[in-house]
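Internal ticket #5521
Category: modeling
Description: The requester needs a full-assembly model to guide mutagenesis choices. All entity lines are attached below as received. Residue total reported by intake: 229.
Assigned to: D.W.
Attached entities:
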Amino acid sequence: GAVVSQHPSRVICKSGTSVKIECRSLDFQATTMFWYRQFPKQSLMLMATSNEGSKATYEQGVEKDKFLINHASLTLSTLTVTSAHPEDSSFYICSARDPRTSGDFNEQFFGPGTRLTVL
Amino acid sequence: TQLLEQSPQFLSIQEGENLTVYCNSSSVFSSLQWYRQEPGEGPVLLVTVVTGGEVKKLKRLTFQFGDARKDSSLHITAAQPGDTGLYLCAGGASGSRLTFGEGTQLTVNP
């Protein structure tokens, strides 16, 4: 399957600082990427849909000024958690559709995730 | 709003036992995916089912899509400790975002 990478895998930061997480499609071009948040032993919660060259679409209840998304190229989307607080601590996962294979099947390929801890 | 109900949420069994995980909805999906996720990692796609009544096998795992494309099941035969993980079903219409089930945390004890 298609390969998606995320960086960093883990980050610890102080409250009030901003953290940027990168999501890259390594062997394909992704016009659409997705950002999820996951709490322990729970399912994935979609935060936003990232579209290359346009503004991201945020899910209800997700603050767009808090979670800045930039999809500047067909292989890179970034999520910046601004003025992070302890309640932002979570596992953040990105995914992408591979247009070569997903077609109408809606398959998403996930990155390995980023564990954010805000002290 | 499309919802997917997954059951059971937690399952702890002994090595060698069989199990079935269910994914149900009142909505019709054009396709449904099953993912497996290990702690600290992203979900990995196991299978996609698209045709009502479709059955797909992946070694000891058997996936079935309901005739009406509203439900799906995952059956594991002779479970092994390596099968331990969070299993997620996800469905969606063509080109739309995915709706995820709540997940089934499977633990296979040696």
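Resolution: model delivered.
Comment from assignee: The two ends of chain A are 36 Å apart (CA to CA).
Ticket closed.
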